[in-house]
Amino acid sequence: MTLQGVMPIFYRGAAIGTYWHCHDARKTGFTSQSPGMQTNTNRLTNHIARGTVASPFISLTRSYGVAWSYAVFLSRTQPKRSRPAYVYEIEFDDPPPLGLLLLDPIKEVANALPPPLSQTSYHHDGVQTFLLGVVDPDSMKQFLTTPIVQPPPRGGTQRPANLSIELETLVRALRDAEILAVGTIPASCVRNRYAEY
Q1: Shortest CA distance to 101 belongs to which of 20, 48, 32, 187?
Q2: Rounded Cα–Cα distance for residues 51 and 45 (Å)
Q3: Quick one: pLDDT at residue 7?
Q4: Tens digits of residue pLDDT in 75-111
Q5: CA nearest 128: which of 161, 166, 175?
Q6: Which of 5, 21, 116, 166 could form a disulfide with 14 if both were Cys (CB 3.0 to 4.6 A apart)?
Q7: Phi, psi of 195 (to 5 degrees)
């Protein structure tokens, strides 16, 4: 049980034309596209950083604004009153329903990262604004392609900063306030479906 019996609320956006827009999760619950697939860090990073939908994960967010953005801005047509996008509200008891596992992707990825003295690192080697491009690659792409600053005499080949899939996953999971569900989210946990346009 959480503080004073208040349970956290999660959200999931359903853009027009997507599966969960056409199928009402208040009646069916949520399932992933590949519910029998084993979970591992590689599948998790590909789900978040590459948008791989053939995974055992169901993406949820703690932010209504993030779910709203996914629902409205990723819709195939402009949402309107007669054909809105949807934001689902989901609430779990503590513990969650049998067979359902909730994962914090930040913790999952952090536990799999190499130690600081490893030759390979998830860290980037760009300037501080590099992360702005990771957060918003559509409108801030220039920060992803800015050449790294090299130590003197700066004679190396110019190249953009390194972006590991682990760093991309961490940044996107933080940006989207993302929590992953593994298993089936029963319809009884889907409390509301809000029409947005």
Answers
A1: 32
A2: 9
A3: 83
A4: 999 999 999 999 999 999 888 999 999 999 999 999 9
A5: 161
A6: 21
A7: -85, 130
Domains of the chain as residue ranges with CATH: 9-105+176-196 (3.90.210.10)
Neighbours of 168 (CB within 10 A): 18
Which of these, 20, 49, 17, 16, lies nearest to 33 by C-alpha position? 20
Task: Encode pLDDT of 124-145 as tens digits.
Answer: 999 999 999 999 999 999 999 9
- Record the tokens describing residue 51, joined without a space: 């948008």
Give the bridge partners for 179, in sequence order. Answer: 60
| Dist CA 126 CA 160 (whole Å) | 7
Alpha-carbon distance values, 26 to 14, 59, 102, 136, 197 (Å): 13, 17, 19, 32, 20
- Prediction pTM value: 0.91
- Phi and psi at residue 108, to the nearest 5°: -60, -45
145 membership: H or E segment, kind and range = helix 142-145
Token pair of 16 as six digits:
């027009």
* Alpha carbons 65 and 149: distance in angstroms, whole number: 36
Nearest to 60 by CA among 42, 40, 87: 87
Would you state the pLDDT for residue 1?
Answer: 47
In eight-state DSSP terms, residue 33 is S
